[in-house]
Amino acid sequence: xxxxxxxxxxxxxxxxxxxxxxxxxxxxxxxxxxxxxxxxxxxxxxxxxxxxxxxxxxxxxxxxxxxxxxxxxxxxxxxxxxxxxxxxxxxxxxxxxxxxxxxxxxxxxxxxxxxxx
Amino acid sequence: xxxxxxxxxxxxxxxxxxxxxxxxxxxxxxxxxxxxxxxxxxxxxxxxxxxxxxxxxxxxxxxxxxxxxxxxxxxxxxxxxxxxxxxxxxxxxxxxxxxxxxxxxxxxxxxxxxxxxxxxxxxxxxxxxxxxxxxxxxxxxxxxxxxxxxxxxxxxxxxxxxxxxxxxxxxxxxxxxxxxxxxxxxxxxxxxxxxxxxxxxxxxxxxxxxxxxxxxxxxxxxxxxxxxxxxxxxxxxxxxxxxxxxxxxxxxxxxxxxxxxxxxxxxxxxxxxxxxxxxxxxxxxxxxxxxxxxxxxxxxxxxxxxxxxxxxxxxxxxxxxxxxxxxxxxxxxxxxxxxxxxxxxxxxxxxxxxxxxxxxxxxxxxxxxxxxxxxxxxxxxxxxxxxxxxxxxxxxxxxxxxxxxxxxxxxxxxxxxxxxxxxxxxxxxxxxxxxxxxxxxxxxxxxxxxxxxxxxxxxxxxxxxxxxxxxxxxxxxxxxxxxxxxxxxxxxxxxxxxxxxxxxxxxxxxxxxxxxxxxxxxxxxxxxxxxxxxxxxxxxxxxxxxxxxxxxxxxxxxxxxxxxxxxxxxxxxxxxxxxxxxxxxxxxxxxxxxxxxxxxxxxxxxxxxxxxxxxxxxxxxxxxxxxxxxxxxxxxxxxxxxxxxxxxxxxxxxxxxxxxxxxxxxxxxxxxxxxxxxxxxxxxxxxxxxxxxxxxxxxxxxxxxxxxxxxxxxxxxxxxxxxxxxxxxxxxxxxxxxxxxxxxxxxxxxxxxxxxxxxxxxxxxxxxxxxxxxxxxxxxxxxxxxxxxxxxxxxxxxxxxxxxxxxxxxxxxxxxxxxxxxxxxxxxxxxxxxxxxxxxxxxxxxxxxxxxxxxxxxxxxxxxxxxxxxxxxxxxxx
Lengths: 117, 878
Hints:
The structure holds two protein chains of two kinds. Chain A is elongated. By secondary structure, chain A is of the alpha+beta class. Chain A has helices at 2-25, 31-42, 53-62, 86-111; strands spanning 29-30, 66-72, 78-84. In chain A, helix 1 (2-25) crosses helix 2, helix 1 crosses helix 3 (53-62) and helix 1 packs across helix 4 (86-111). In chain A, a hairpin with a 5-residue loop joins strand 2 (66-72) and strand 3 (78-84). A three-stranded antiparallel β-sheet of chain A has the order 1-3-2. Chain A contains four helices and three strands. Chain A has a single domain (8-116), classed as Arc Repressor Mutant, subunit A, CATH 1.10.10.10. Chain B contains 26 helices and 22 strands. In chain B, the strands form three sheets. A six-stranded mixed β-barrel of chain B has the order 3-4-9-6-8-7. A six-stranded mixed barrel of chain B has the order 14-15-20-17-19-18. In chain B, strand 3 (156-170) and strand 4 form a beta hairpin. The radius of gyration of chain B is 37 Å and the shape is elongated. The model of chain B is unreliable at 1-6, 479-489 and 594-598 (pLDDT under 50). The A-B interface holds A 30-32, 35, 48-52, 54-56, 58-59, 61-62, 64, 69-70, 73, 75, 77-80 and B 19-20, 22-24, 26-27, 29-31, 33, 52-56, 58-59, 62-63, 65-67, 69-70, 73, 77, 387-388.
C-alpha cells in the first residue's frame, strides 16, 4: 500500500530534519560535523548513508530554517557552515514538542493491557 | 529582460554546482582524514569514505531537487519581508501607494482615452484598408463629384458617401428629433459590417431619388423605441411625415465611422431630399457629402491619392465654377478628416504629457523617500552584508520593496482609471447632438498600466537599491553615522528634489495659466449677452414646410411666444453664435472683376429675423437693423461685423457698400455693422460674419431667442405648448438658456482647467511631502552636529542656515529650471488652454512665490525640531 510507504518515508524524513535542527542548534557546524554530532547524540546508526544528509540540509536551507556561510574548518579547510535561523529555532521547538507528544502517546499506547481497553 | 534572467540563472546554477561539489569534497576529505587517524591505510580510507557517503550523483540530484524552487521561494520571502517593512511605516506606504495610484491611474485613464479615440481601429472589416477622403479645402464634396470619384477611380474597391443629418422621427404617435447618417447604398458593404437583425440596404436599394424609403436602426434605438422586438423588421415608421420601412438593426458595437457620434438611424442617400427638405443630389455647388473608400487589394495610399487627384484635375477642367483648384488628401477615418483628429490627438497627447510629468514627480518623490530609508537602514544592510548576504540579494530585496509598492499603486491606479472611464463614457455633452465618446479600458490599457507600474518601480527603486551596493561597510559598522558618505549619497537626492521642484513648477504654472485663461474667457467680449435669454428650436424642413409656409410659421410662432408671461422680446435665426451648428458662405466684393479662380473669402452666415441683433444684445455700431420691409421683393441687404468690413470690404465704414455671395449673383448692400464677437470657439481670432434677412434668405432651421429673466420649466412648457398649438407634430429641441450654449464652447477649456488643476495640486502635494521628507531626514541625520553646535553656542540664525542653506539652494535651482521649462513649454500649453499670454510674467511670479512659500511651510516642523535639539541628549545618543 503506497500510502503507508509514504507515511513511513515522511516520518523518517521528519526525524532526520529534527535531528539536523537539533544538531545545528548546538552550534554552527559544517555538514560532516553535523553528521558526527547526530551520530554522537543519537548513539549512532540512524543514517544509512552519509550523503543522505545533504538533501535534508539543502531542503532546510530552502525552507529558511538554516542559513549557510563559507568558513574555515578546524583543520584549516574551506567548508560550508550551517547555522539555525530564527525561524529554524522556532521550528525546532515546535517539532521537539510534537515529537515528545507523539512519543508519550505511543508509549502510553504500548503500555496498554488487554483489560484496559 | 528575459536575457537578463537567463544570464542570472545560468550564473546562479554554475555557482550552486561548484559550491555543492566543494561541500561534498570537503565531507569526503574530512571522513578520509578521520579514518586515517583511526588507523586505516590512506587508499582504503578514501575508498571507505566514498562507500559510506553513498551515491554521489544521486545525492547531488536530490540536493538540486531540494533547492530547485529556491529563487521563487526567495522571491516569496522577499515579498513577505518587503510587506513587513512597508507595514512598519504605514505613513510612508500610504503616501507612496496613494501618489502612485493617482499617477498611474491618471495616466492609464488618459491612455485609455487616447487608445479608444486614436489607436483602436474601427469595428469594421479590415480597417487598415479603409480611408477617409478630404480635400485641401474641406472634408466634404458635392454629390455629383462623389459619383464621378466613385465611377472613375481605379484604386478603390468601393467608395461610399455619407452625411450626418437630422430629421423628425415618428413611431406610435410620439414625434422626436433623431440624428442619422444619410449613406449611399454601398456604405455597409464598403465597411464590411453585418447587421444584428434583418438586413442593411445595398447599392440596388439606392438608385433613384425618393425611391428607397428604408431605414436601418441603431441597436440603441431598437432597444429604446422598439423594446428590442424582433418583429420591428418590416414595421413602418414616419420620417418627416413620410412612411419608411425598417430594414434591419445594426450590431451593438457599430456606430458608423465617427468616434464622437452615435447615430440613431441610417437612411439611404437617395432619400436626402425628403430628409433635408431640399435636394442637393444634383448640385455641384453644394458640398455636403463625406467620402470614405476601401482600397483595392494591392493599391497603396499614395497610388490612391494620385488616382483621386487625376480625377480632381479632370473635374476642375469640366466644372471650373465649383471644382477649380480641387486637391485631394487621404485621412484616417474616425473624426471627419484630419483636422479634428489632429486637434483631438494634440489635446489628449498634451494632457497625457502633463500626466506623465506628474508620474515623474511622484517617482522622484518616492525615489527620494526610498533613498532616505536605505540610508537609514544602512547599518542593517551593512550587517546583512557582513554576515554574507549577497549584494545581488540585497539589491533584489530593495527592488522587491519598490515593486511591491508599484504593484499596489498600479492596481489601485487601474481601479481609479476604470472608474474614470465609466464616468467619462456616461457623460453627455449639453448639446442637441448625440455626442458619445466611448472609452473602454481594454487589454492595451491594462498592459499600459502594468508597464507603467513596472517602469515606475524600476525608476524609483533602482537608484536607491544600487546606491546600497556602493557602500563602504567599515564606518557604518563602527557606529558613525558616516557624514562623509552622507554627502556623496546626497547627490542623487539633490537631483531628484531639483527635478521635482522644476516639474512641479511647470504643472502649477500650467494650472494657474489655464484658470486665468478660463477666467478671462468668461469675461471675454462675446459680441452678445448670454444672460437672461432662453432658446428653443424647430426644424421646418423636416416637417415638410414650403418656404412660404415656413416664413408664415416663423412669424406666427414668434408672435405667440411674445405673448408668454415674462417674455420681453422674441427673434429667431437659423443658428446662434457659439452653438455647434455654424455654416459659411463664399463672399466677394462687388465691382471686382468676375475672373474665375480669384481668391474668394468665406464668411460665417446667420439668417435672422428683424430684432435678432437687438435680442442678442449685439452692439450695432453703424447703420440699421433689418425691418419688415426687407423682403424677397426688396433689394438684398445684409449686416456685417467689423472683421467682415475689414477683411472682405477693406473698410471700417461698410454701410452702403456692396458684395456678392457667388460670381454673377445679385449685389448685396450692407445696411449695418455690429461689433466682432466669438462665433465658433472662444479662442478664435475675429471671423468675418454676415447676417442675412430671413425673408430674403429663407432657412427652415429656426432657433427662437426669447429675452426673459425666467428660465423655469414652466416657461419651456409654455414654449412647447405654443408651438404645438400651431403644429402638434413638430418636435421642439434645443430648449435651454443661452448661457448653456456657452457650456459647450467652454468645454475644452473646462476640461483642461480641471485636468491641470488636478495635476498641479497633486504635484504640489508631492513636492511638499518631498521637501518635508528631505528636511526631516537631514535634521534627523544631523542631530549630532546640531547638538554640538548648540553646545558651543551657535545662534538660532546659524542653525537655520545650517539646516536650510542646502535646501534653499536646491529649491531655487529647481525653480530656475521650472521657469526655464515653462518658458519653453508655454507655446505648447497655449495651444491647449485659452490664453493671450502663455508666458505671463505675473503668473510666473505667483507660482514662484507660492512654491517658495510651500517649501518654507513644508520644512517648518522639522526645522523647529532642529532648533529645539537638546545638546546633551543629542550627543549621548548614537
